[in-house]
Amino acid sequence: MTEYIPLHLDWPGCLNVRDLGGLPLTGGGTIRERVLVRSDCPSYLTDDGVVAATDYGLSRIIDLRRPDEIDRWPSRLGGLPAHLHLPVQEPDDPEEGPWVHLYAGLLDRRPELFARAVAAVADAPEGPVLVHCAAGKDRTGLVVALALTLVGADADALADDYEITNERLAPRYAQLADEPDYDRPVGRLVPPTREVILGALEHLRTRHGSVEAYLAQGGLTPGHVRALRTRLVG
């Protein structure tokens, strides 16, 4: 397998920005550079960070957060024409714990929303597509994992990329843990391991037969899958 060297991007203010180019495929080759980027929330961007992000030539920005999150923490890229708000949750959806149940619940409840997000990567105009949520870990991790799995990404490399987020967000975890008014479950500050994302993908295979079958149930078409493969692999 080709060694995966993460391509971290310096967008000041954000801690967890990676171009997924170079991630290995199971049959050889890698994901192309400058086609798929993941990040934490652009609300953290400084002025220099906004410049760095816009200079990267983003063709589409997919914001997976709920409306209440956007109201509370507006994206500094939200005014760009490339911005799309495509939440993968409805406002009243519960969030279970621990991690494995959280991810399974998100996926099982809203296949149409996850399919819509993956389709938005597939049919974006030419150029890098940014996918983000709040931390760039859970919802972003799922959408990115679904897209990468569809095009044949190596599962171990995919899990490695997922777990890199823990290291990148460690300073923010430490800061949040010290804030008395932090309104998320304390358990969510315990970083999830690679087994969490691998378990979520296995859950889809067990319940639906494959990731592609799950997304097809939500409305993803064979045309979307072909476009995604062309975009990410070439």
TrEMBL record:
Pfam families in alphabetical order: Y_phosphatase3
SUPFAM superfamilies: (Phosphotyrosine protein) phosphatases II
GO MF, one example: phosphoprotein phosphatase activity
InterPro entries referenced in this protein's UniProt entry, alphabetically: Prot-tyrosine_phosphatase-like, Tyr/Ser_Pase_IphP-type, Tyr_Pase_AS, Tyr_Pase_dom
Annotated ranges, domain Tyrosine specific protein phosphatases: 112-183
Highest taxon listed in the record's lineage: Bacteria
Signal peptide per UniProt: none
Family indicated by similarity: Belongs to the protein-tyrosine phosphatase family.
Protein name, UniProt field: Protein-tyrosine-phosphatase
Source species: Promicromonospora soli
